[in-house]
Amino acid sequence: MSISIKKLQLFEATARLGKLTKAASELSLSQSAASQALKELEVSLGYPLFERTGRDLLITENGLKSLPKVRQISDLLDSLKLANLNSMSGALRVVASATIATYLLPQLIAKFVNVYPDVTPEIHIGNTQMVIDYLDKGKASIGLIEGPAVHRHLQITPWRVDKLQVFCSPEHSLAKGAIITLEQLQQHSWVLREHGSGTRAIFDAAIEQMGAQISLGIELTRQSAIKESVKAGLGLGCLSQLSIAEELNNGGLIALHSPLNLSRRFALVTNKNSYHNSLSQTFFDFLISEP
To answer: Does the keyword Transcription apply (predicted)?
Structure first.
Protein backbone atom coordinates (compact mmCIF):
# COMPACT_ATOMS: atom_id res chain seq x y z
CA MET A 1 0.00 0.00 0.00
CA SER A 2 1.26 3.50 -0.83
CA ILE A 3 1.68 6.34 1.65
CA SER A 4 -0.52 9.11 0.28
CA ILE A 5 -0.57 12.79 1.24
CA LYS A 6 -4.21 12.41 2.31
CA LYS A 7 -3.30 9.65 4.77
CA LEU A 8 -0.49 11.71 6.24
CA GLN A 9 -2.85 14.67 6.59
CA LEU A 10 -5.33 12.40 8.36
CA PHE A 11 -2.65 11.26 10.81
CA GLU A 12 -1.59 14.86 11.53
CA ALA A 13 -5.19 16.05 11.98
CA THR A 14 -6.03 13.14 14.30
CA ALA A 15 -2.99 13.85 16.46
CA ARG A 16 -3.79 17.58 16.54
CA LEU A 17 -7.53 17.33 17.17
CA GLY A 18 -7.44 14.26 19.41
CA LYS A 19 -10.37 12.57 17.66
CA LEU A 20 -10.59 10.62 14.40
CA THR A 21 -14.13 11.89 13.87
CA LYS A 22 -12.95 15.52 14.01
CA ALA A 23 -10.04 14.76 11.68
CA ALA A 24 -12.36 13.03 9.21
CA SER A 25 -14.72 16.01 9.25
CA GLU A 26 -11.86 18.47 8.66
CA LEU A 27 -10.70 16.45 5.63
CA SER A 28 -14.24 15.78 4.36
CA LEU A 29 -13.95 12.01 4.85
CA SER A 30 -16.51 9.58 6.18
CA GLN A 31 -15.78 7.93 9.52
CA SER A 32 -15.31 4.52 7.91
CA ALA A 33 -13.04 5.86 5.16
CA ALA A 34 -10.89 7.70 7.71
CA SER A 35 -10.60 4.63 9.93
CA GLN A 36 -9.59 2.46 6.95
CA ALA A 37 -7.07 5.04 5.71
CA LEU A 38 -5.42 5.27 9.13
CA LYS A 39 -5.12 1.47 9.34
CA GLU A 40 -3.60 1.35 5.84
CA LEU A 41 -1.07 4.04 6.79
CA GLU A 42 -0.01 2.05 9.85
CA VAL A 43 0.42 -1.07 7.70
CA SER A 44 2.52 0.88 5.18
CA LEU A 45 4.72 2.36 7.90
CA GLY A 46 5.07 -0.94 9.73
CA TYR A 47 4.12 0.34 13.17
CA PRO A 48 1.01 1.60 14.99
CA LEU A 49 0.49 5.35 15.25
CA PHE A 50 -2.22 5.21 17.88
CA GLU A 51 -3.31 2.92 20.69
CA ARG A 52 -7.05 2.35 20.67
CA THR A 53 -8.68 2.41 24.11
CA GLY A 54 -12.42 2.34 23.63
CA ARG A 55 -13.34 5.39 21.57
CA ASP A 56 -10.13 7.23 22.38
CA LEU A 57 -6.92 7.23 20.34
CA LEU A 58 -3.63 7.72 22.20
CA ILE A 59 -0.63 8.51 20.04
CA THR A 60 2.22 5.99 20.36
CA GLU A 61 5.91 6.72 20.84
CA ASN A 62 6.53 5.94 17.16
CA GLY A 63 3.66 8.24 16.27
CA LEU A 64 5.22 11.07 18.29
CA LYS A 65 8.56 10.53 16.54
CA SER A 66 6.90 10.59 13.11
CA LEU A 67 4.68 13.62 13.70
CA PRO A 68 7.34 16.36 13.22
CA LYS A 69 8.32 14.85 9.85
CA VAL A 70 4.70 14.67 8.73
CA ARG A 71 4.16 18.31 9.72
CA GLN A 72 7.29 19.23 7.80
CA ILE A 73 5.76 17.64 4.69
CA SER A 74 2.50 19.48 5.34
CA ASP A 75 4.28 22.83 5.68
CA LEU A 76 6.15 22.26 2.41
CA LEU A 77 2.88 21.47 0.65
CA ASP A 78 1.27 24.62 2.05
CA SER A 79 4.14 26.71 0.72
CA LEU A 80 3.58 25.27 -2.78
CA LYS A 81 -0.05 26.35 -2.71
CA LEU A 82 0.82 30.05 -2.62
CA ALA A 83 0.02 31.73 -5.92
CA ASN A 84 2.96 34.06 -5.42
CA LEU A 85 5.82 32.53 -3.47
CA ASN A 86 7.07 36.02 -2.57
CA SER A 87 3.83 36.92 -0.76
CA MET A 88 2.58 36.02 2.70
CA SER A 89 -0.97 34.75 3.09
CA GLY A 90 -3.05 32.22 4.98
CA ALA A 91 -3.82 31.47 8.61
CA LEU A 92 -1.27 32.48 11.24
CA ARG A 93 -2.01 30.21 14.19
CA VAL A 94 -0.67 31.79 17.39
CA VAL A 95 -1.13 30.76 21.03
CA ALA A 96 0.03 33.08 23.81
CA SER A 97 0.10 33.38 27.57
CA ALA A 98 -2.41 35.81 29.05
CA THR A 99 -0.13 38.78 29.77
CA ILE A 100 1.46 38.70 26.32
CA ALA A 101 -1.86 38.12 24.56
CA THR A 102 -3.48 41.06 26.36
CA TYR A 103 -0.77 43.70 26.55
CA LEU A 104 1.72 42.99 23.74
CA LEU A 105 0.26 40.79 21.02
CA PRO A 106 -2.56 43.05 19.71
CA GLN A 107 -0.14 45.81 18.68
CA LEU A 108 2.33 43.30 17.22
CA ILE A 109 -0.34 41.48 15.21
CA ALA A 110 -1.73 44.79 13.91
CA LYS A 111 1.71 45.86 12.74
CA PHE A 112 2.39 42.50 11.07
CA VAL A 113 -0.98 42.38 9.29
CA ASN A 114 -0.43 45.92 8.08
CA VAL A 115 2.67 44.65 6.26
CA TYR A 116 1.04 41.37 5.16
CA PRO A 117 -2.69 42.12 4.70
CA ASP A 118 -3.48 38.66 3.28
CA VAL A 119 -2.57 36.98 6.58
CA THR A 120 -5.45 35.88 8.83
CA PRO A 121 -4.47 35.68 12.53
CA GLU A 122 -5.96 32.88 14.67
CA ILE A 123 -5.19 33.67 18.31
CA HIS A 124 -5.61 31.33 21.30
CA ILE A 125 -4.97 32.41 24.90
CA GLY A 126 -3.96 30.20 27.83
CA ASN A 127 -1.25 29.65 30.40
CA THR A 128 2.31 28.53 29.63
CA GLN A 129 1.44 24.83 29.89
CA MET A 130 -1.41 25.23 27.40
CA VAL A 131 0.91 27.03 24.96
CA ILE A 132 3.40 24.15 25.12
CA ASP A 133 0.58 21.63 24.65
CA TYR A 134 -0.79 23.49 21.60
CA LEU A 135 2.61 23.57 19.92
CA ASP A 136 3.33 19.95 20.77
CA LYS A 137 0.02 18.82 19.24
CA GLY A 138 0.33 21.08 16.19
CA LYS A 139 -2.66 23.24 17.10
CA ALA A 140 -0.56 26.38 16.64
CA SER A 141 2.49 27.37 14.60
CA ILE A 142 4.09 29.70 17.12
CA GLY A 143 3.66 30.30 20.85
CA LEU A 144 4.57 33.11 23.24
CA ILE A 145 5.13 32.21 26.89
CA GLU A 146 5.90 33.98 30.16
CA GLY A 147 7.42 31.20 32.22
CA PRO A 148 10.39 28.82 32.05
CA ALA A 149 9.88 25.74 29.89
CA VAL A 150 11.84 22.84 28.40
CA HIS A 151 10.56 20.45 25.74
CA ARG A 152 12.45 17.90 23.67
CA HIS A 153 10.38 18.41 20.49
CA LEU A 154 10.08 22.21 20.60
CA GLN A 155 12.43 25.15 20.16
CA ILE A 156 12.20 27.73 22.96
CA THR A 157 13.86 31.07 22.16
CA PRO A 158 14.34 33.83 24.78
CA TRP A 159 12.54 37.02 23.78
CA ARG A 160 11.72 40.08 25.91
CA VAL A 161 12.52 40.90 29.54
CA ASP A 162 9.62 41.40 31.96
CA LYS A 163 9.26 41.92 35.69
CA LEU A 164 6.54 40.89 38.12
CA GLN A 165 5.30 43.35 40.70
CA VAL A 166 3.93 42.71 44.19
CA PHE A 167 0.95 44.97 44.89
CA CYS A 168 -1.89 45.68 47.33
CA SER A 169 -5.03 47.77 47.61
CA PRO A 170 -4.78 51.44 48.67
CA GLU A 171 -6.53 50.53 51.94
CA HIS A 172 -4.08 47.75 52.86
CA SER A 173 -1.90 48.22 55.94
CA LEU A 174 1.25 48.05 53.77
CA ALA A 175 0.10 50.64 51.22
CA LYS A 176 1.45 53.72 53.01
CA GLY A 177 5.03 52.47 53.25
CA ALA A 178 4.97 50.80 49.81
CA ILE A 179 7.50 48.23 51.10
CA ILE A 180 7.10 44.62 52.13
CA THR A 181 9.73 42.64 54.06
CA LEU A 182 10.43 38.93 53.91
CA GLU A 183 8.66 38.49 57.24
CA GLN A 184 5.61 40.41 56.03
CA LEU A 185 5.51 38.32 52.83
CA GLN A 186 4.79 35.32 55.03
CA GLN A 187 2.28 37.04 57.30
CA HIS A 188 -0.26 38.17 54.69
CA SER A 189 -2.65 36.21 52.47
CA TRP A 190 -2.06 36.09 48.70
CA VAL A 191 -4.22 36.07 45.57
CA LEU A 192 -2.21 34.32 42.84
CA ARG A 193 -2.37 32.79 39.36
CA GLU A 194 -2.94 29.06 39.00
CA HIS A 195 -0.22 26.40 38.79
CA GLY A 196 0.80 25.97 35.16
CA SER A 197 1.00 29.71 34.52
CA GLY A 198 4.36 31.37 33.91
CA THR A 199 3.58 34.10 36.42
CA ARG A 200 2.97 31.57 39.18
CA ALA A 201 6.13 29.62 38.31
CA ILE A 202 8.30 32.74 38.63
CA PHE A 203 6.65 33.79 41.90
CA ASP A 204 6.98 30.32 43.45
CA ALA A 205 10.65 30.13 42.41
CA ALA A 206 11.34 33.54 43.97
CA ILE A 207 9.64 32.52 47.23
CA GLU A 208 11.56 29.24 47.32
CA GLN A 209 14.83 31.07 46.64
CA MET A 210 14.22 33.15 49.77
CA GLY A 211 13.35 30.05 51.81
CA ALA A 212 9.96 31.54 52.61
CA GLN A 213 6.45 30.11 52.92
CA ILE A 214 3.36 32.12 52.06
CA SER A 215 -0.32 31.81 52.84
CA LEU A 216 -2.35 31.26 49.67
CA GLY A 217 -5.82 32.76 49.98
CA ILE A 218 -7.22 32.41 46.45
CA GLU A 219 -5.92 30.93 43.20
CA LEU A 220 -7.39 32.47 40.02
CA THR A 221 -6.88 32.01 36.27
CA ARG A 222 -7.65 35.58 35.21
CA GLN A 223 -5.53 38.67 35.84
CA SER A 224 -8.60 40.90 36.04
CA ALA A 225 -10.06 38.67 38.75
CA ILE A 226 -6.82 38.86 40.73
CA LYS A 227 -6.72 42.65 40.51
CA GLU A 228 -10.33 43.01 41.60
CA SER A 229 -9.80 40.55 44.47
CA VAL A 230 -6.80 42.52 45.71
CA LYS A 231 -8.78 45.77 45.45
CA ALA A 232 -11.50 44.12 47.55
CA GLY A 233 -8.96 43.41 50.29
CA LEU A 234 -8.70 39.64 49.84
CA GLY A 235 -4.90 39.65 49.88
CA LEU A 236 -1.71 40.71 48.15
CA GLY A 237 -1.13 40.09 44.46
CA CYS A 238 1.78 39.55 42.10
CA LEU A 239 1.43 40.10 38.35
CA SER A 240 3.42 41.48 35.45
CA GLN A 241 4.06 45.22 35.60
CA LEU A 242 2.47 45.35 32.15
CA SER A 243 -0.86 44.14 33.49
CA ILE A 244 -1.16 46.57 36.42
CA ALA A 245 0.44 49.70 34.91
CA GLU A 246 -2.91 51.48 34.46
CA GLU A 247 -4.07 50.74 38.03
CA LEU A 248 -0.72 51.89 39.46
CA ASN A 249 -0.98 55.16 37.52
CA ASN A 250 -4.53 55.93 38.65
CA GLY A 251 -4.00 54.84 42.26
CA GLY A 252 -6.30 51.83 42.09
CA LEU A 253 -3.44 49.58 43.23
CA ILE A 254 -0.21 50.22 45.15
CA ALA A 255 3.16 48.73 44.14
CA LEU A 256 5.15 47.22 47.01
CA HIS A 257 8.94 47.03 46.86
CA SER A 258 9.92 43.49 47.89
CA PRO A 259 13.13 41.46 48.36
CA LEU A 260 11.98 38.91 45.75
CA ASN A 261 13.79 38.37 42.45
CA LEU A 262 10.86 38.72 40.07
CA SER A 263 12.60 39.35 36.74
CA ARG A 264 11.76 36.95 33.94
CA ARG A 265 12.18 36.45 30.22
CA PHE A 266 9.32 35.98 27.77
CA ALA A 267 10.04 33.32 25.15
CA LEU A 268 8.92 32.22 21.68
CA VAL A 269 7.99 28.58 21.14
CA THR A 270 8.20 26.91 17.73
CA ASN A 271 8.47 23.47 16.25
CA LYS A 272 12.08 22.63 15.45
CA ASN A 273 11.10 22.27 11.78
CA SER A 274 9.11 25.52 11.62
CA TYR A 275 11.60 27.05 9.17
CA HIS A 276 9.79 25.00 6.51
CA ASN A 277 6.68 27.14 7.12
CA SER A 278 7.48 30.50 5.54
CA LEU A 279 4.62 32.38 7.25
CA SER A 280 5.56 31.15 10.74
CA GLN A 281 9.23 31.87 10.12
CA THR A 282 8.46 35.38 8.86
CA PHE A 283 6.34 36.13 11.95
CA PHE A 284 9.07 34.68 14.20
CA ASP A 285 11.70 36.92 12.55
CA PHE A 286 9.33 39.89 12.89
CA LEU A 287 8.91 39.29 16.66
CA ILE A 288 12.65 38.97 17.18
CA SER A 289 13.29 42.22 15.33
CA GLU A 290 10.68 44.23 17.25
CA PRO A 291 12.20 46.31 20.10
So the answer is: yes
Sign of the C-alpha dihedral computed for residues 35, 38, 43 and 44 taken in this order: positive
How far is the C-alpha of 56 from the C-alpha of 14, rounded, in Å?
11
CATH number of domain containing 175: 3.40.190.10
Question: Based on the domain organization, do 114 and 187 belong to the same domain?
Answer: no
Q: What is the rounded CA–CA span in Å between residue 65 and residue 47?
A: 12
Which residues have CB under 8 Å from 9's CB, separation 6+? 27, 74
Q: Are residues 105 and 128 in the same domain?
A: yes
**One domain for residues 18 and 31:** yes
217: part of which helix (H) or strand (E)? strand 215-220
Q: Closest Cα to residue 284, out of 77, 94, 74, 103?
A: 94
CA–CA distance, 23 with 17 (Å, rounded to integer): 7
**Pure H helices in the chain:** 5-17, 20-26, 31-45, 61-80, 98-103, 105-115, 128-136, 182-187, 198-209, 223-231, 241-250, 278-289
Three-state SS for 223-269 is HHHHHHHHHCCCCEEEEEHHHHHHHHHHCCCEEEECCCCCEEEEEEE
Please state the pTM of the whole predicted model. Answer: 0.72
Report the distance separating Cα 202 and Cα 262, nearest Å: 7
Total domains, the chain? 3
* Alpha-carbon distances of 43 from 31, 55, 92, 114, rounded to whole Å: 19, 21, 34, 47
Regarding whether 260 and 242 lie in a shared domain, the answer is yes
What pLDDT digit, counting tens, does each position of 144-173 carry?
A: 998 788 888 899 999 999 999 999 999 999
Show which of 27, 49, 82 is a domain's final residue: 82
Give dist(CA 287, CA 143) in Å, integer. 11
12 and 146 assigned to the same domain: no
Asked whether the beta carbons of 180 and 154 are under 8 A apart, the reply is: no
